[in-house]
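Entry 14. Structure prediction run on the chain below.
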Amino acid sequence: MRPGPGWAAPGHAGRGFTLLEVLVALAIVAIALGAGLRAAGVLTDNAQRLGDVVAAQWCADNQLTGLRLSRAFPGIGDADFSCEQLGRTYSGKLLTRPTPNPSFRRVDAVVSDEAGHVLVTLSTVLTRL
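Output returned:
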């Protein structure tokens, strides 16, 4: 009588993997894929946030540059503005504050997203001409 196909002679290792080895390998692959997906999601979120911050910085810089070009000495107080960049609308506030020297004013441009989260704050000092 000849042995069946699943039979191994004494001293010979079986061919193939056991079910436990296959399950451990599958668990390792699943964990690695899950970590890769999470990392890809974080990169996507960071890229979106970076785009929002850059566009908000353009808005703030445009407002402060407009004040400098107007050559008008700003009064103390707050002023709202809105700006559209890259197809999105951002809301902002110009905060004008006095300085110890009455010939200077500090102006902060604070730009927020639609949810009201501050994305960027840019500051400058304007002088009386």
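The chain has one helix and four strands.
Filed with the rest of this week's runs.
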